[in-house]
Amino acid sequence: MIETEREFESFAAGRRTTSRRWLLLAVPAVALILVALVGVVVSRDQNGRSLPAAPQGSRGNPGEAGNSSPAVTPSGPMAVFPGMTPSKVMDAWAGRWPVPVTVDGSLHIIRVTLPGKQGRLSAAVGQPSKDRENEVAQVLCMVKLPGAVQRQLLQTLVDGCIGPVLGAKERKAVFDWLIGIDFSAPTYEFRRTSGYELLANHNSDESFALNLFAR
Questions:
Q1: What is the C-alpha to C-alpha distance for residues 83 and 101, in angstroms, rounded to an integer?
Q2: Which of 29, 113, 151, 172 is most buried, most CB within 10 Å of its CB?
Q3: What is the pLDDT of residues 155-178, one digit of tens each?
Q4: 15-49 pLDDT, tens per residue?
Q5: Rg (CA), the chain
Q6: In terms of C-beta distances under 8 Å and separation of at least 24 residues, what long-range contacts does 107-110 make, across chains too?
Q7: What separation in angstroms does the CA of 88 have from each of 92, 125, 165?
Q8: Are 127 and 148 in contact (CB under 8 A)?
């Protein structure tokens, strides 16, 4: 197991003891861990996790703060997407991208070069813990870009990467939200509903991530 994958698994497991508000501030770290999976070096905090500085100008849904201090709240069992299993997500991915799957602890990871010069995708399905192997708590999609974030890439990630755990109406809502965001400069944006939290992280002209967490 490579070091970055151990960190990724540690972060996924550690989320059980964090509040969802803290997650909204910590998810940029997850995106950069996926960047590390495709060969980019990131900094670490005192606990050994990847921890980038949050970019300025982050936004949330109307009425929700994207840059506020984390609120400490009681945490319960890690949330999952109802009726979803890692194998269902992987089967959907295999129908679109027939590439090998790496299973590492609670993670299922694929890497694929997207068509049309969209970039190199590293995607992972995360279980809530090793003993809950038939549940899905998160879907993480990181693209090493050849250039700017394009509409075609957003459609590919919504339909192909996070799409298996979302319904058709929600995929459309997510895509409409994404195309309304200016990704011409580094930024991270979050969308929160009763069923999930989604982070869109454009940390440079070389990487873009969608990180979806059940709630």
A1: 21
A2: 29
A3: 999 999 999 999 999 999 999 999
A4: 433 333 334 333 434 433 443 443 332 222 333 33
A5: 16
A6: 107/5, 107/8, 107/9, 107/12, 109/5, 109/37
A7: 6, 10, 9
A8: no
Contact 209, 142 (CB under 8 A): yes
87-130 pLDDT, tens per residue? Answer: 999 999 999 999 999 988 889 999 999 998 889 999 999 999 88
72-77, long-range: CB within 8 Å, 24+ apart, which pairs? 72/19, 72/22, 73/19, 73/20, 73/21, 74/19, 75/16, 75/17, 75/18, 75/19, 77/16, 77/128
First to last CA, the chain: 28
Residue reference for tokens 């009681």: 74
> Tokens in use for 74?
């009681």
User: What is the mean pLDDT of the segment spanning 144-162?
Assistant: 94
